[in-house]
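Check my protein:
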Amino acid sequence: MIMPLDDDHKDEEQRGNDLAKKLFQQLEAGAKKAAAAVADEDPNALVFDADFDTLREMCNKTSVVNYVGMVSRPGVHLFGCYMEHKFYPPWKPELNKNFQLHVVKWPKEGPTMEWIIYTVPVVDYKFIEMSLRATNEFLEDPGVRIANGVPTMFSGDDIETFPVNGKNTFTIENHPDSKVHKGGSDVVDARERVVVGAILDEAEKQGE
């Protein structure tokens, strides 16, 4: 059971922060290796600053479904972390190969943001709903929801649509009733770090 964040649980919060930081350090360290794997047409590689033409080709396959979320959006990391470790655990390669994660920067010009694309087999759509429900239960918040379509940026009179935008691609966004929209973003974000830390800790034990 995930305990509420209060003064008696600062150590647990810090542990979650440290483990989450460790994960991102591992992702950064593996960037070059991932890029080389993509060059060898490895469909399961982690991609940074990916070529969007390649991504579109991979993500537009009718056999998969994609979910796009801003890296900094509370709940997006937990949604993917829970889904992978629950249904496509890294210690079971035969399952994990069906979970793809791509990290990209967009838009390419002007202020850019990092986005995550989670890609799974379309036949596993039920795992998405289960992961969404679990994410929001852990956050004790309406948290995140899946919206039709892909992210759109407005700059003056210009409108830019996220480059991976097939009919099988959706957006992970914060629910209108989430604390994120009511000044409680730090609380939701802190809980997310605690839960992600616990998931990664368990994953390390499974992988031993």
User: Anything to note?
Assistant: Strands lie at 47-48, 64-70, 100-106, 113-121, 144-147, 152-155, 158-161, 169-174.
